Amino acid sequence: SASALNLHLGLLTRFSLYLWSHDSSSQDVGHIIYHELCESIVKWLADMLALESATNTFLA
Asked: What are the protein's UniProt keywords (predicted)?
C-alpha cells in the first residue's frame, strides 16, 4: 500500500542519511558501494511510489 511504501521510504531515507553523515569521511570502497546501494534502493522506492500514485494499481 502507499502508506507501507511511504513508511519504508522514510525509514530507508533516514537510515541512509544517518550512515552517510557518520561515514562521510571514510573512503573505504565498501562504504562507498553501500551508500550507492542505499541511494539506489531509495530511488527505486520513490519510483514505485510515484508509479502507484499515478496509476493506483501497484500491489505491495
From this structure: Signal
* Cα distances (angstroms) measured from residue 27 to each of 11, 14, 15, 31, 35: 25, 21, 19, 7, 11
3-state helix, strand, coil in the chain (%, to 5): 80, 0, 20
Domains identified in the chain, total number: 1
Q: Is the pTM of this model over 0.70?
A: no
Query: Residue 38 pLDDT > 80, yes or no?
Result: yes
Spatial distance between the Cα atoms of 50 and 19, rounded to a whole number of angstroms: 25
C-alpha cell at 57: 494499481
Q: What is the C-alpha separation between 35 and 46, in angstroms, rounded?
A: 16
Average pLDDT of span 40-60: 77
Indicate whether 60 belongs to any domain.
Answer: no
